[in-house]
Automatic annotation (TrEMBL):
Pfam families: Aconitase (PF00330), Aconitase_C (PF00694). SUPFAM superfamilies: Aconitase iron-sulfur domain, LeuD/IlvD-like. It comes from Haloferax marinisediminis. This is Aconitate hydratase. Residues 518-580 form the Aconitase A/isopropylmalate dehydratase small subunit swivel domain. Signal peptide: none annotated. Keywords: Iron, Iron-sulfur, Lyase, Metal-binding. InterPro entries: Acnase/IPM_dHydase_lsu_aba_1/3 (IPR015931), Acoase/IPM_deHydtase_lsu_aba (IPR001030), Aconitase/3IPM_dehydase_swvl (IPR015928), Aconitase/IPM_isomerase (IPR050926), Aconitase_4Fe-4S_BS (IPR018136), Aconitase_4Fe-4S_dom (IPR036008), Aconitase_put (IPR006250), AconitaseA/IPMdHydase_ssu_swvl (IPR000573). GO terms for biological process: tricarboxylic acid cycle. Residues 634-649 are annotated as: Disordered. Gene3D superfamilies: Aconitase, domain 3, Aconitase, domain 4.
Length: 649
């Protein structure tokens, strides 16, 4: 039987397991990328593993999330990242050079290679035929040290694109249509492989808009086959030599097939506050808009901004709103500036910002209260823009520019009818991507050869091997659907402590109970109780690392979110499932002890453990863990285990 493209790349990189959906496989990683708010911990963990040099073909460190550098803490972080990249052999992209996914696509993405990144939108270069996956920082550190990456073998789903996009419809509308149909949970445990004549008609930048937002579907990754368009893009970037033709076999068998006819696609928009609340733009037309932003890793490319710039040329944005363009990379910004488009946009009333994530995570350009903000970004979760009661819509650059000109939401086709002289801009690639590379410091030109740790750079906390006795006071009882953002908030006043676990841990679960961290410190150790889906949201490993630092030994929950559960294993916290009756009966302040010898039980494959509560009643808690996860727990986490293995222990 033939193979899908995903299976072909995985087969080429397989070091453990078989390609059976749902089974754990180990794969070799060719490239790794880090962004700034996760990268500091990756390098501190890499240092703790006593490794001398990155072992992957390529490692790249970007500074993109926190580039406004409010105080010395951000600059300390960025200097540390530069020194770590220099010391261990990674490329370093300076603050302001752009968002990791954009800069990586331009400079390093390569068809057929595997990429692991400490950011959830790492799958972006799937648009060039690269198999790219987002993961927690410790997984990146281990992969960079030459270790395999373990993941559940995904189902491969064929998304067949028929026809061709009509005028005013865009790649963003294709992924919004996917979200409308499949929802934010539709991609869990899947890779979406895009094929068909519609896929062939799209340029690489259009393809990467789709693969980028596969993350919003919950997908493990998304990928396109490679073709002349891929080759052409790479040649324009001056990297034609990395091109290789990659196709699924004719007789490849997919787990499922989704067909989208591009001819029928009209401009779409995701309403507040979920990326899958998608409707035709015309359904929400007429709503007054106070802010419009074009940028981010989804639609921040030259090819995304140019259509908007063409629409702005010789016109003016509505006087009552703020219109911001933040290029995804300096390369995009520089080409637009050289071609005169930046001046045209400025003349139209556009505020051109630096190349950064910034506003996408509520850092800068926070919308006014009770107002509508239209953004070309990928996420509009409540509060992400920096204000709790926000109204953020997600759309294409064409829809965003039309709203900026009109001052209200409008389908660009209707604006074209109104204005009479507004032509559909289409998508155009520059003849050559010739931006300067002054902000990219290649590993061979490294400035530093030792780590520079300012006062904001902390230590990696380590856990002892798992003991026989696990338990303690239930320091907090929580409801269903606690997110990683509840556990460790991502606001800018807290984000700056991501490289300082001692300081960051003071904010642990502060959104649930402000006194939690202090109570945990006073108690010295303890456990947590939660309802369903504990730890949903991002891959943020700090949400496991900080509770571990505060002495949390186990979490008893009705169910766990997949990535967070992996992070609990990685940091030596025992994740135990309890039934609804036990959850209802447990109370905050209860003393919960596991009766069995936990270390021996975990090692021997024991699944059911008896818990004794206040010495009064017993219940059962279940450990669902693979053999590898049990080894991690036994060692006290993935870092101590990897160290032991490296030392031959
Ligand atoms: Fe994440 Fe937004 Fe930055 Fe993209 S632009 S990497 S979604 S923070």
């Amino acid at each position: 039987m033939g193979q899908t493209l995903t299976e072909k790349i995985l087969s080429d990189h397989l070091v453990e397991g078989e390609l059976t959906p749902g089974e754990e496989i180990g794969i070799e990683i060719d490239q790794v990328l880090m962004q700034d708010t996760t990268g500091t911990m990756v390098w501190l963990q890499f240092e703790a593993l006593d490794l001398d040099e990155a072992q992957t073909e390529l490692a790249a460190q970007y500074c993109d999330h926190q580039t406004y550098q409010f105080d010395f803490k951000n600059t300390d972080d960025h200097r540390f990242l530069r020194s770590a990249a220099g010391t261990y052999g990674a490329h370093f992209s300076r603050p302001g050079n752009g968002i990791c996914h954009n800069v990586h696509k331009e400079n390093f993405a390569a068809p057929g290679k595997t990429l692991l990144g400490s950011d959830s939108h790492t799958p972006t270069p799937g648009g060039l035929g690269q198999l790219a996956i987002g993961a927690g920082g410790l997984d990146i550190a281990v992969a960079m040290g030459g270790g395999a990456y373990y993941v559940e073998m995904p189902e491969v789903v064929n998304v067949r694109l028929e026809g061709e996009l009509p005028e005013w419809s865009s790649a963003k509308d294709i992924i919004l249509e996917m979200l409308r149909r499949e929802t934010v949970k539709g991609g869990v445990g899947k890779v979406f492989e895009y094929t068909g004549p519609g896929a062939e008609s799209l340029s690489v930048p259009e393809r990467t808009t789709i693969t980028n937002m596969g993350t919003e579907l919950g997908a493990t990754s998304s990928i396109f086959e490679t073709d002349e368009k891929t080759k052409d893009y790479l040649e324009r970037q001056g990297r034609g030599e990395v091109y290789t033709e990659l196709k699924a076999d004719e007789d490849a068998e997919y787990a499922d097939e989704i067909v989208i006819d591009l001819d029928d696609l009209e401009p779409l928009i995701a309403c507040p506050s979920m990326p899958d609340k998608v409707v035709p733009v015309r359904e929400v037309a007429g709503n007054k808009v106070e802010q419009v932003l074009i940028g981010s890793c989804t639609n921040g490319g030259y090819e995304d901004i140019l259509p908007a710039a063409k629409m702005f040329k010789g016109r003016e944005v509505a006087k009552h709103l703020e219109m911001i363009v933040a290029p995804g990379s300096k390369q995009a910004g520089e080409i637009l500036a050289r071609q005169g488009w930046t001046a045209e946009m400025m003349a139209a009333g556009v505020n051109v910002s630096e190349a950064t994530c910034g506003p996408c995570i509520g850092i800068g350009h926070v919308p006014a209260s009770d107002s509508i903000s239209l953004r070309t970004f990928n996420r509009n979760f409540e509060g992400r823009s920096g204000i709790e009661d926000d109204n953020v819509y997600l759309c294409s650059p064409e829809v965003a520019a039309a709203a900026a000109l009109k001052g209200e939401i409008i389908d660009p086709r209707d604006l074209a009818d109104e204005l009479g002289d507004l032509e559909a801009p289409g998508v155009e690639l520059p003849e050559k991507y010739d931006g300067a590379k002054t902000d990219l410091i290649y590993a061979e030109d490294a400035i530093d050869d030792e780590l520079i740790k300012g006062p904001n750079i902390g230590e990696v906390p380590l856990q002892d091997p798992l003991g026989a006795e696990v338990g303690g006071e239930a320091l907090l009882k929580m409801e269903d659907n606690i997110t990683t953002d509840h556990i460790i908030p991502a606001t800018s006043d807290i984000l700056k402590f991501r490289s300082n676990i001692e300081r960051l841990s003071d904010f642990t679960l502060s959104r649930v109970d402000e006194t939690f961290a202090q109570r945990a410190k006073d108690a010295g150790n303890g456990v947590l109780v939660a309802g369903e889906n504990y730890g949903q949201g991002s891959s943020r490993e700090h949400a496991a690392m900080c509770p571990m630092y505060l002495g949390i030994e186990a979490v008893f929950a009705q169910s766990f979110a997949r990535i967070h559960k992996a992070n609990l294993f990685n940091f030596g916290i025992v994740p135990l499932a309890i039934d609804e009756e036990t959850y209802e009966k447990l109370e905050q302040g209860d003393d919960i002890e596991i009766v069995d010898d936990v270390a021996a039980g975990v090692e021997s494959g024991q699944q059911e453990f008896t818990i004794r509560v206040n010495d009064e009643w017993d219940a059962t808690a279940t450990l669902n863990a693979s053999e590898r996860e049990r080894r991690i727990l036994t060692a006290g986490g993935k870092l101590p285990l990897t160290k032991q293995q490296a030392e031959g222990g």
